[in-house]
Amino acid sequence: MADVRIHYRKTDIYERLVDEEDIFDSYVDLFVFAACRGYAEGERHQSDYKGDAEMLWMHFGNKDFHRAAAACIAYQTTNDPTSLMDHEEQLDILAQYASAGADILQDDYGEVKGSPLNSLINDVKQYEPDSDEEEGGVSALEKLRKDMNM
Q: What is d(CA 27, CA 18) in angstroms, rounded to the nearest whole number?
């Protein structure tokens, strides 16, 4: 399964949020985030979502969240349990949502003067349920803020 790969559309927002602003550590992280954003907004490009950039499944190898997001989004999209184990299908579906998500991110943050980090964090808040708290009363967003030293 290590040779599973997909070509995806890498837009300017990838360079802005990864290379220029250092908000995301890697293109893989932003690819998954963009896919999650596309999925959350119900936006998916089923055509014209492939590009020159390449995403390999092996990049998901040691990232449990990335693999879980890929499996969940693929299953929710197909309603087919076999998609939970089909890494090629997962990457293809993620690329469709990531294409739409990258367009959303470009519209929201592409023209922001300065770092869009605070705007991005505030926007993520809208997707966090109020009742979704982890042990110790720390929400997932608060844990993210602590992890990012904010």
A: 7
Which portions of the chain are predicted below pLDDT 50? 132-134, 150
95 and 125 part of one domain: no
Phi and psi at residue 10, to the nearest 5°: -100, 110
Buried b (16+ CB within 10 A) or exposed e, 128-145: eeeeeeeeeeebeeeeee
Q: What pLDDT score was predicted for residue 124?
A: 84
pTM given for the model: 0.83
The whole-number pLDDT of residue 132 equals 47
Q: How far apart are CA 128 and CA 141, in angstroms?
A: 7
Whether residues 42 and 78 share a domain: the answer is: yes
The answer on 65 and 49 residing in a single domain is yes
Q: Which two tokens stand for residue 21?
A: 């602003």
Give phi and psi for 8, each to the nearest 5: -135, 165
Q: Which amino acid is at 134?
A: E
Same domain, residue pair 50 and 93: yes
Residue 5 tokens read as 């790969």
Tens of pLDDT along 96-112? 999 999 999 999 988 87
